[in-house]
Request: fold
Amino acid sequence: MKESEIVSTISRKLAPYILLFGLYLISYGHLSPGGGFQGGVVLASGIILLYLSRGIASTGKVFPQEKLVVTEIWMFFLFLLIGLGGLIAGGYFLENFLPLGKAGEVPSAGFIFFLNIIIGLKVGAGITLICFYLLR
Amino acid sequence: MKSIGEILIFLALGLLLVKGIDVNLIPPSGLKDYFVEQAVTETGAINLVSSIYLNYRAFDTLGETIVLLLAVSGIIMLFETKR
Reply:
């Protein structure tokens, strides 16, 4: 099928803003509606838009599948490590061991901020991998 | 004739559902009130959804991430092409 100029141009211009919006949803997850899961799915939708419009070859250079697999696995281990950090700090598993900070600022709320980032990257990599393998 | 029977079955089910809704039922509010009052000072997050699913129920979130990891592993196992 012939490549459409409109689809190619619009997707290339739109995808960075979709990725930026996903990162915003993740990093402000403890302040406003959003969070790790939603922001991760928005990240994945930006990558899938690039994949559908530009093809696997050029998208795979920017987001290689091996790196996505590594991200998916290591983010899970980081989640477990943060959970074990609560045990090391003298509490129970997955207890907040970081200072809470001032409510309403971006790096606040202890480990919720970091867990949001971890879950966002993990969900983004996972949904992207599922779509890469199913659409191929 | 067959579709009339199906419509009747769905109407009966819908009637059961409407009958089952108790408009005077007030949901228990103890836990909700506790979260609204205490969650910001206990967890530091303004978004109560985040404070619940990443602090009070973080173990449940760990299970969800395991589910996603297993789904991705299964799909990669099924759809991996021989290089």
Summary: Chain B touches chain A through 29 residues (CB under 8 Å).
